[in-house]
Amino acid sequence: MGGFCLADQENTLLRVDGVSLQFGGVKALSDVSFDVKKGELFSLIGPNGAGKTSMLNCISGRYRPTEGKIEWRGDNLLKHSINDRAKLGIGRTFQNLALFGHMSVLDNILVGRHHRLKNNFLTGMAYWVGGARREELAERRFVETIIDFLEIQHVRNEPAGTLSYGLRKRVELARAVAIDPELILLDEPMAGMNLEEKEDMARFIIALREEFAMTIMMIEHDMGVVVDLSDRVAVLDFGRVIAAGQPEEVLADEHVKKAYLGEEDEVLDALADEQEREIA
């Protein structure tokens, strides 16, 4: 019990304890453990196929672990459905965009507010004299705040499917933010973006912590972004955690370098860039 700290326990938002996930004879995750503390940006990194998205799917409820526990504020998260997890305060984006292409940007974001609606069918019938209209107006005001924050006012009425890739990624982030989550899970938020789009997304992610007080768990392959933004990092390889800690320490770990193989140069370059910034 020497390492136990009550303050750390109270500050822990999400705890993953010994999680394994198996599909037939294939083990996607093996005895994975880590925690995410309130207010931090925690990155989960690793080579392609390491099990990173599978881990997010276990947290968000798309998959159920074969073994292990996942706790949200000390409560068993696995007893809750996907919708319940959104109500608890867990939102996410997807590696492959999951927008409704025929719907407008505004309507896509409003989908993220659906679970917040409290009015039922009967109160909906009394829309003009009851609380349903007031509720809808309040939801729309919140959504407009998100649209302004992510700088997508100019496409708010455009069908999401007609937008550029970078803008669609921004709309998906807006929909996740619309849930008003305490923890937001970002699955490769900068994949496929050019440098300018990455810089914008990094700025938005930083602001989510500072202005919206969100805790962030992120999967990202750009090691420069990981080093710049993350408080702590865990590395998965073949479904197992092989390193965890401060970004600069983790990326200097020999096991991490070997796991990345062809990406080793990127890891070393990110570490060198970080050291140069510290010297400057």
TrEMBL record:
Descriptive protein name: ABC transporter ATP-binding protein
Cellular-component GO terms for this entry: plasma membrane
Keywords: ATP-binding, Nucleotide-binding, Transport
Organism this protein belongs to: Notoacmeibacter ruber
One Pfam family cited in the UniProt record for this chain: BCA_ABC_TP_C
Domain (ABC transporter) ranges: 14-263
MF (Gene Ontology): ATP binding; ATP hydrolysis activity
